[in-house]
Amino acid sequence: MNLTERFMQALQSTEQQRDPAPLVELYTEDGTSENLTRETHRGHDGAQQFWTAYLGNFQDIRSEFTHHADGERLGVMEWVSRGTLKDGRPIEYRGVSIIEKDGERVAAFRTYYDSAAFVAPAADTNGA
């Protein structure tokens, strides 16, 4: 199994168990994690913080991978995630994640997704 496939499997395990350890184990000592906030988390502690914060957005979440590719230096994953936000609202959103590889370890993780899915719908002020 290549690193991209191991990463996908570790993410699904992390989501099911609500424990980021399977993902953190895949990172290099100075690996980075970054999402749309552009805040960079470094190292194993940073990966732990990044994935713990990710899980903290949801009551439950499950990612399904629709496409992936694994090259010598990069892995790319397209996905759809479905679940329930902390406030009880259902969520479904799509995105793409990229891993930069250092051998069989994650040197950098970046993810891009439809952040509009996280915005609560405006209250209906017309009484309808």
UniProtKB/TrEMBL annotation:
InterPro entries, A to Z: NTF2-like_dom_sf, SnoaL-like
Domain of life, per the record? Bacteria
Q: Tell me which SUPFAM superfamilies the record gives.
A: NTF2-like
Annotated SnoaL-like domain residues: 5-107
Name this polypeptide is given = SnoaL-like domain-containing protein
